[in-house]
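Worked problem 6 (solution included).
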Amino acid sequence: MADSKLATFKIDPDLWDEFKGKAGNASEVLKAFIEQYVSGNIDLDLSSSTVTQHELNQRIEAALDKRLEDIEERLGKLSAV
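Solution. The predicted structure is:
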């Protein structure tokens, strides 16, 4: 790919880690999403409060899940002592 654009954006670190864990190759997944979105195969209405609330709920759930895993790991280490 001779002509390409390096794109950067800010994202919650926990959300990014979860995405990379699920996506494998995050760059390829993002590029595929952009191609599908631009071609009209994916339609998002980001102005909708439902989408915003859903996204917020997903972020909260992911953060809580990560914290719970950390706590369970710490408890496991303490009980092994």
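Discussion: The chain has three helices and no strands.
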